[in-house]
Design brief:
Layout: H1 2-36, E1 40-41, E2 50-57, E3 60-67, E4 70-73, H2 83-93, E5 97-98, E6 100-102, E7 118-124, E8 129-138, E9 143-148, E10 154-158, H3 159-165, E11 186-193, E12 198-203, E13 218-220, H4 232-246, E14 249-253, H5 257-262, E15 270-278, E16 281-289, E17 298-302, E18 307-311, H6 313-321, E19 341-348, E20 351-360, E21 363-368, E22 371-372, H7 375-386, E23 392-393, E24 408-414, E25 422-428, E26 433-438, E27 441-447, H8 448-460
Antiparallel strand pairs: 1-5, 2-3, 2-7, 3-4, 6-10, 7-8, 8-9, 9-10, 11-12, 11-15, 12-13, 14-18, 15-16, 16-17, 17-18, 19-20, 19-24, 20-21, 21-22, 23-27, 24-25, 25-26, 26-27
């Protein structure tokens, strides 16, 4: 009997769980359905992926079509389209949602819909079409009036929707189109300031035999000694910044000398010239950057585009950093490769430490002034020394001096005589930094604490 009662209770519990579970599931589904049905759509036609957008305003008509996943302006084939701007227009206007419907609308003229200031038609990939007339802005409620051509109903839409839709053609122009240029085809980059001085870097072949740790294929052609290594990562960052400038919003087009003067591009603060190869030909483009505006933004123009863009403060800050040739240098001051060395000579405060290195496959031994040396202590010193980095440089022309008190001189002896020795000189600079000189690159600043650590390890490597 007890067993039957227990079974009955269990069955009742299970039935209750099933009942209430079904109830809450239905309730949740109904709520979701009700929520989904709250949107008010201006047009009765529901569109899928937008394939074409046509706009008509007081200045005429322009049309964007999707071709190979990119928007093109069919009215002006050479028009540089800002892809993100047209995507934003499509997302706003497709299946346009209203705040409310105007009941008993009456005369269209009171809404500016008898002669609408703007008309936009969208066609999806299946050929379905929706056309909207945009009326005037109601200043009291900050909403635009709108109607669809497939209905006499009048609706109000958010002001930001209306402002997105009624933009003129130049609002959808990009400063330049870099999409067709392969970054890997770039051969030379030159950065000029307003006075015409330039840093020039070129792309060549990696030197895998070099005793330096960096085997960058990018080298300096000016400012620093020829073949001074360039940080390859900076080239990637520069290209990203050029893409950001190319995607800048259009400020003006149909450019003449007066407009160049107006936007500060008659005498730009910076010109970046890029040479590249395409279709077995040498080609180039240049970017001009004006003086910064009060908010840090600046006007930009790519030489042959004849469109002036407005670059953001962040983009301008990044672009102006390349005026400093030091920004292209590797952070490493002198990262010698251990496998390429036969010895290291260190001089500090008149005392010379002559380390000889004998390498045998993966094993090696170290001597100091001809006597056996603890290789673990030497290894700690060597690794810290070649890891010294610099993120800044002097602006007063100061350089490292070998005869200055507290100067550290390190000479790396290469196993390949054709490369010669690598010599780095590091002198005290101020209370926070030492200044380094290596292979014709002067004035690089190194944190004082890093040098103090090197000197401590040097004493332990005796």
């Amino acid at each position: 009997m007890k067993r039957k009662r227990k079974l009955t209770v269990i069955l009742l519990v299970i039935l209750n769980i099933a009942f209430y579970g079904a109830f809450f599931a239905m309730s949740y589904a109904n709520k979701r359905s009700a929520s989904a049905d709250r949107s008010i759509y201006v047009s009765k036609t529901k569109l899928g992926d937008v394939a074409s957008i046509s706009c008509i305003n007081s200045n005429g008509k322009f049309t964007f079509e999707k071709q190979d996943d990119s928007w093109v302006c069919t009215d002006q084939k050479d028009f540089q389209v800002n892809q993100k701007a047209v995507d934003s227009l499509a997302q706003t206007a497709v299946n346009l949602a209203a705040v409310r419907k105007v009941e008993q609308a009456g005369d269209f003229s009171q809404y500016g819909l008898d002669s609408p200031q703007f008309k936009i038609s969208l066609t999806d990939s299946e050929g379905k079409k929706a056309t909207y007339d945009i009326g005037k802005l109601n200043d009291n409620i900050r909403k635009y009036y709108v109607k669809s051509e497939d209905s006499a109903d009048v609706f109000v839409i958010k002001s930001n929707y209306g402002e997105e839709i009624i933009k003129p053609l130049n609002a959808y122009s990009a400063a330049y189109d870099l999409s067709a240029i392969d970054k890997g085809s770039v051969t030379t980059i030159k950065v000029n300031d307003e006075k015409g001085s330039a840093a020039e870097i070129t792309q060549g072949q990696r030197d895998t035999e070099s005793p330096l740790g960096s085997d960058s294929k990018w080298k300096f052609a000016s400012v620093f000694p020829k073949n001074t290594n360039v940080n390859s990562n900076i080239i990637d960052e520069l290209w990203t910044d050029l893409e950001a400038a190319a995607a800048s919003d259009c400020a003006d087009f149909e450019i003449d000398d007066a407009k160049l003067e107006k936007y500060g591009l008659k005498q730009p603060q910076e010109i970046i010239t890029v040479n590249y190869s395409a279709d077995s030909q040498n080609k180039s483009f240049s970017l001009m950057v004006s003086k910064e505006n009060a908010d840090g933004s600046a006007y930009v123009m790519f030489g042959d585009a004849k469109v002036i863009g407005l670059a953001s403060a962040d983009t301008v800050k990044s672009l102006k950093a390349y005026l400093d040739a030091y920004s292209f240098l590797p952070q490493s001051v002198c990262a010698a490769k251990f496998k390429s060395l036969s010895g290291v000579t260190v001089t500090y405060n008149g005392v010379k430490y002559d380390y000889g290195i004998t390498q045998n496959g993966t094993d090696y031994s170290v001597t100091l002034n001809g006597a056996q040396c603890d290789k673990d202590n030497f290894d700690a010193f060597f690794k810290k020394m070649v890891a010294l980095n610099s993120n800044s440089h002097t602006s007063d022309g100061s350089t490292a001096l070998e005869n200055k008190d507290g100067t550290l001189v390190v000479v790396y002896h290469s196993t390949n005589a054709s490369y010669g020795d690598l010599k780095v000189v590091i002198s005290p600079y101020d209370s926070d930094y030492y200044v380094a000189s290596f292979d014709g690159v002067e004035g690089r600043l190194i944190n004082k604490r890093s040098i103090e650590t090197v000197l401590t390890l040097l004493q332990e490597a005796k």
